[in-house]
Task: structure prediction
Amino acid sequence: MIKQLILLVQILGLFFYQLIFTGDLTVTQKLPDSITQGTEAVVEITIKKEDITGFAKVQQVFPDGFTAEPIDTKGATFSFKDNKIKFIWMALPAENEFTISYKIIPNENTLGDFTLGGKFSFISDSERKNIEIPEAKFSVVSESLAIETTPEEPTTEEPVVEEEVIVEGPGEVDPVLELTTITGNRTIENIEDGKYKVTLEIDKKGIQGFAKITEQLPDGFIATENDSKGGVFSFKENEVKILWMAISKDEVFSITYNIEANAIAENGTYGIKGYFSYLENDVTSKYDINVSNFELNVEQLVAEEPATEDSVEEEEVVVEEPAIEEPITEELPIEEPVVEETETTDNSNNKVTSTPNPENGVTYKVQVGAGHKTVASNYFAAKFNLQDNVSTINHEGWIKYLVGSFGEYKLARDKRNKVRNNVKTAFVTAYNSGQRITVQEALMISNQKWYK
Result:
């Protein structure tokens, strides 16, 4: 009786946990009870996501003897490999409720009863969460049995099925033809002396989701945004980058940006080269865009050279003396709202430091606490036996404490797991060029995998 009572409490606890942490988020699937051997069936998965946004994945595992092809991915990248079906979104659809679909085809020798489940994974509060897809049972029966049970169905439908099987679904690209199906062309138009308009036309051939254009400019030129078709434009160290979490739905689209010669550029012939990168079946692919040449021929270039990234950073770097060390009595909160911040780590003698310093690219750090008062330099060592060097960030009265700096999420995840032996509430944070962003955004920008 006691065992049954304990089991009931555990079941109720799991129910209320799911109620609290998933709310009205639901995932359901629909597929036929019976499939005729050698024919196809459609599987539909409906997701009611509520306020979930950003990175997400649907995964299902099939037994041997099936193939699968996408029908409607709702902008996700579809893959079927090693009997696993995956739909991966860099950014979930805006709709509160949507349905994805694909078709499964049993092989000629596949017969019997099967069960299909799966899970919907997403990131919330920098942590991965899973919703189980309710299992559905179905059978694969022989053609003769199908004819006996449904004599009214004509057998002449099989050739039509074979024709449908070879039709590629949205986002499908033949890997063998990958380099020839994606096409890109660049044109450079002279606007006036030393100023040019660059146009890139991309035929993406069904590619969806995450994508990026990278352009390498010659020395002596700067770039400014013109029309990025919803992408995020940046220019740094002679590189133009345009980043999409969800690329334009148009099969053929054009982006434009402007370039201008500065004081160090000399008359002559220059070239621009670049590439278009995208995700296909969880793999990053790249299409090189041929070099385009243009002539610079001006009598007098601009005498004043624009400020470089380095000069701006030098002005922003302010070295501050550490605040007076004094013990605090308040507990450090687990997590604070995302803000834009800069930081640095002092590697000497395990001190808590507060010297801001700009960063380049995506980095991952482990946050161990936050408070309103400055703590002593040995606070985390004394209270939590944490021997790592701790850096600080100040923002609107909050002082945040961080450990480590990693270019790969997996390394930061491993560090977080180790730090949790001392600080149970430690979690991973992410930064892009010194600005704090969500971990899922950082994973998308740096094209890295998420690890539990």
